[in-house]
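The records we work with from here on pair a chain with its fold. The integers have meaning only within a learned vocabulary of local backbone shapes. A complete example follows; check for yourself that the lines match position by position.

:::
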Amino acid sequence: MEIQAWATQQDWGSWADWFAALGTIAAVGVALGFGLRDGKRLKVERLEASQDRARFREQQDAEAEAQKRRLAARVSVSSQRFIDETGDRKCRWTVHNGGDESISRVAVVGRTIAVKGKETPPPFIFGIWTTIEAHGKREEETVPFGDGMVREAELQFTDGAGQFWQRKEYGTLKALDLDDPESIAGKQTHPYHA
């Protein structure tokens, strides 16, 4: 009976002490529960914020790309065939930069039709300029093209942000890498002047 004697000799406190102890334990449990809940909510909020930042960056990149495309779309090339005062047939190439920034490394290019079984010659360069300022234009006169050999003329240029572009005479616009097969940068070409 030593246990019974020991149990009766201990001061177990009053009922108020017991309620206070249980209240303290409950308060600690509630605080831990709130802490876990808040931790989960914070983790979700951080994930949502991270996703929002990623969407914002994607949106800004898309807007920047669209802005570059809008600026590049304001650059055009046209050709006009005519007979000069000596009776020679000529072609006048006009490049117009309608954009708000200069363009550089500008070239008017003509490509020949690929004939089966024959090697396709390199592109022809009808005109080349280092820079065309904003809202500027350049003209170049050459012998006529389109004698059955040239299929389409195009313009290749670099915008102010360093993007290389290809603009077909009839409107198609395409961003080019310098190593793109259609890029004339660093490739062999023929001059096509009178």
Notes: The longest strand covers residues 103-112. Strands lie at 75-83, 89-97, 103-112, 124-132, 137-142, 150-158, 164-168, 173-176, 190-191. The chain is about 35% helix and 30% strand.
